[in-house]
Design brief:
This protein is α+β, with helices and mostly antiparallel strands. Helix content is 47%, strand content 15%.
Length: 392
């Protein structure tokens, strides 16, 4: 095994364990097995665990039907001959070809689509281990032997964070291992004062973040509630699809994010300044005293003293001019403007129109080839996926 060889995982779900010996035998020929766990989740919590693991309720329900709710095997291994290729099904993800091909072969052996899970990249391994074992890849590696001794370690434990979080540091550790995010503001002394904030403002790359933090929401509350050390802490998470800010700016903020001394991700200094300005100008529509000092400091830091008024303050008029010049230079649109909202509505309308046409054509084809009963089942599954709600 080379020093650069990454760690990967395979999961043999409950209903697939009849093929355990054949799969492990094949894995030994191709890879170096490092450790094996038998993990038992409470069967009543199995769906919730899968929801947090995969980020899709419909996917979780489908996987339960195919994979079962009994104990499953987690196999940790290294690949001494790593090869990578892009996977169309996973966007631009560079996947380990050896791992991916083995997974697909084992699924063929078993004859079920989701019967075997594997991580195919460093990021996916980190995500999976952090949730399954409560430790990221780096920390798991510290305790891992060079080669499996043949014993199977047994764990009876739901996904990490299932019963809430001991403290905010624990939640941040899991976030760092599972998704890309940025805490936008109010992050000074966050660990000590998180419960005092109205909510913690977060930009997150994927909607699965709300499942990972094990949040609770209802229609009366805008923010998500999270149980941290028996206290309710609120998170206001924004995703690219929310158009809280221009999507190009959103992606740039995620790309330029900085890991601060407290171990969580915050915006770069420049993004902090301009997103805070955007928030105050277009969302709050006032420069609050709470943020005056930091804005003035950053204004001077960037040599923007000409935007300070006679009282050495950054007022609304100067703020709008400064923000407009910056966004124009960076190619960012104002997501709060009428023009942006109209463009967004037009795109959504065109998408909806084409999607309706596509669904009508598909419906006629299903009726012709398979009948009304199959069409009804397809529509039922589609509605479950859209509403993201389980059947009653």
């Amino acid at each position: 095994m080379t020093e650069r060889s990454s760690l990967y995982i395979f999961i043999i779900w409950d209903k697939s364990r009849k093929m355990t010996n054949e799969i492990i035998s094949d894995l030994k020929k191709k890879f170096i097995i490092r450790d094996v766990y038998e993990i038992t989740w409470n069967k009543y919590d199995f769906e919730k665990n899968l929801l947090r693991f995969y980020g899709s309720l419909y996917g979780a329900q489908k996987k339960i039907e195919l994979c079962g709710t009994g104990p499953f095997l987690l196999i940790l291994l290294s690949d001494p001959d790593e090869k990578f290729r892009k996977l169309e099904s996973k966007g631009i993800l560079l996947a380990n070809s050896n791992i991916y091909d083995s997974k697909m072969m084992y699924r063929e052996w078993i004859g079920k689509e989701f019967s075997i899970h594997s991580s195919v990249s460093k990021e996916e391994t980190n995500h999976d281990l952090t949730l399954l074992l409560g430790k990221n890849t780096k920390d798991v590696e510290k305790e891992l032997k060079l080669e499996w001794d043949g014993s199977i370690k047994k764990i009876e434990k739901n996904l990490h964070g299932h019963d809430g979080w001991y403290n905010l540091k624990e939640l941040v550790y899991v976030l760092n291992g599972t998704c890309k995010y940025v805490i936008l503001r109010n992050f000074d002394d966050l660990y000590a004062s998180a419960h005092k904030h109205h909510d913690i403002d977060v930009l997150a790359e994927g909607i699965k973040t709300k499942y990972i933090i094990n949040s609770v929401s209802n229609k009366l509350e805008k923010a998500l509630r999270v149980d941290i050390n028996q206290e309710q802490v609120y998170f206001d998470i924004k995703y690219p699809i929310d158009h809280y800010i221009d999507i190009k700016w959103f992606n740039d903020i995620i790309e330029r994010r900085v890991l601060n001394d407290d171990g969580f991700y915050i915006p770069s200094r420049e993004d902090y300044f301009y997103t805070l300005l955007f928030h105050l100008v277009f969302h709050k529509k006032q420069i609050s005293k709470k943020y005056e000092t930091i804005l003035e400091i950053l204004c001077k830091e960037y040599g923007l003293k000409e935007f300070l008024n006679d009282s050495n303050k950054l007022d609304m008029k100067n703020s709008k001019i400064l923000l407009s010049e910056y966004m124009k230079k960076m190619g960012y649109q104002n997501s709060n403007s009428f023009k942006y909202k109209m463009q967004r509505s037009s795109i959504q309308y065109n998408f909806l129109f084409s999607e309706v046409n596509r669904l009508i054509k598909k419906s006629f084809l299903i009726i012709q080839k398979q009948g009304f009963k199959i069409l009804f089942l397809e529509m039922k599954n589609k509605l479950k996926l859209i509403t993201n709600k389980p059947e009653s």
